Amino acid sequence: MTAAEILATLEKDGQGEGLALFAGPQDPALVVPRERLRAVMTHLRDARHLAFDLLVLVTGTHMTEKKDAKSQAIVREQHFEVIWHLRSVRHRCVLAVKTKLPFSDPEVDSVADLWPAANWHERETFDLVGITFRGHPDLRRILLPDDWVGHPLRKDYVYPREYRGINLEVDAPWPTP
Amino acid sequence: MGLFERSLPDIHLTRLADLAVNWGRASSLWPMTFGIACCAIEMMAVGASKFDMDRFGAGAFRATPRQADLMIVAGTVNAKMALVVKRLYDQMAEPKYVMAMGACTVGGGPYWKHGYNVVKGIDKFVPVDVHVPGCPPRPEAVLEGVRFLQRKIMAKRVLTRGEHHAPDFTGVSIAPGTVGILEPTVRVTTASPPAPSPATAGAQA
User: Fold this and answer.
1) Mind listing the pLDDT tens digit for each residue in B17-75?
2) B151 to chain A nearest CA, in Å?
3) Residues of chain B positioned with their CB less than 8 A from the CB of A170
4) What is the pLDDT of residue B163?
5) Least CB-CB distance to B119: which of A144, A148, A166?
6) Domain spans of chain B?
């Protein structure tokens, strides 16, 4: 099943409200509004003709620009995207689900109770990108220390100069040839 | 050496005592089993039978800092790990030595620019005796580092007053032409004649 067929299936099942198709260069994705995320994900997992029983990965991105639909110009606009990659073992297909989050309010529902694998994926996304997952059982940093400041994979991240008295700066700039 | 720490007069007898103590220290460097990242694979190779660091008395890897003399920091040290490395160094008994193994511990390595959490060289928080560059270093390079450290230890003063002696690094240079461990096995011996520059080519025409 391709993403377009899955979208058609979801519309037939009455779950198609607000869904769209993201036509990427090679990996078409299903774009879900964040209010409907829980309902769509539950349906994707539980419906027998979909049966996405494996969550491959959760990741987040900080987007700083987009292409304007009318003028095709690149405009600055900040938002976050969370991407879930699902796999259906029974039907042998993969699906990417995307949700766009506003920059000022990066919060989305957790799916850790649907797929237990999402637990540490969401912690990692919270750690590095700073997206809050509502309803996560234990949302704290997983890679960086608990008292770390900031989220490093954001584009506006300022590199720390020191951490607990340990100097993280570079002594001298790299010599240019 | 406790009470007599670098306080005895610098006479021949005490110098001989220095030599004996230094010989003992340099010949039984016990490293700590401390592999953080990929350099640890090379460190294991150094300890294993093919390269056999035990030839130089440094093959008894200890699993505790209390029994170790040499801390080989083999791998990327990030900010979270740096606290642990510092604590392990503090737990080691004197005299203690540190080898920074690999590009990451020498100066940040590939994480030098965009490694937001990588310490750009462990000499930012522990004193380093030997830097062994490489990504990862060849096992021969680690042996070379151990030999360097042993020469450095042999040049120390333990009982006698005065400055440390200059370490004797003769015979371990890696400059081409000298006999060292790092000598490449294949060397280009025939050099091609230099190409004529455009100016001389024009003058000849």
Assistant:
1) 888 999 999 999 999 988 899 999 999 999 999 989 998 889 889 989 999 999 999 99
2) 28
3) 108, 112-113, 120
4) 79
5) A166
6) 30-154
B39-47 vs B139-154: helix crossing angle, rounded to 10: 70
Instruction: With H, G, I as helix, E, B as strand and everything else as coil, classify residue B169.
Output: coil
Low-confidence stretches of chain A (pLDDT beneath 50):
none
Structure confidence at residue A17 (pLDDT):
84
ipTM for the whole complex: 0.76
Which one of 3.40.50.12280, 3.40.50.920, 3.30.2270.10, 3.30.420.10 gives the CATH number of domain B30-154? 3.40.50.12280
For residues A39 and A155, what is the distance between their CA atoms, to the nearest angstrom? 31
Pull the structure tokens for residue B140. 């021969």
Count of CB atoms within 10 A of residue A75's CB?
Answer: 9
- Between chains, do A168 and B112 touch, taking CB under 8 Å as contact? no
Rounded to whole angstroms, the Cα distance separating A159 from B116 reads: 6
pLDDT at position B184: 41
Residue A2 one-letter amino acid: T
For chain A, list the domains and their CATH numbers: 3-155 (3.30.460.80)
pTM over 0.95: no
